[in-house]
Design brief:
The protein has three helices and four strands. The protein has 76 residues and is α+β, with helices and mostly antiparallel strands. The structure holds zinc ion (ZN).
């Protein structure tokens, strides 16, 4: 009986995790678009691509799309 409860808890956890990952919405694409429109886009100082402000990696010399580009630009 104890094993059954543990198993159910694990299954519930996996289900919640998957639900959280997919956003729990039927149209995650539309949600992502709305989010991108609401957020200001910041240009990466290394490669020039635009990333949403909440995903930007801030550096001493500017903003970057990822930690790797910040390192490339600032540790050189
Ligand atoms: Zn970049």
């Amino acid at each position: 009986m104890k094993l059954m409860i543990v198993l159910l808890a694990v299954l519930a956890g996996v289900w919640l995790w998957r639900r959280g990952r997919t956003g729990g919405a039927r149209a995650p694409k539309r949600r992502a678009q709305a989010r991108a429109q609401a957020l200001p886009m910041v240009r990466c100082a290394r490669c020039g691509i635009h990333v949403p402000a909440d995903e930007v990696v801030a550096g001493r010399r500017g903003s970057y799309c990822c930690a790797g580009h910040r390192q490339d630009a600032e540790d050189a």
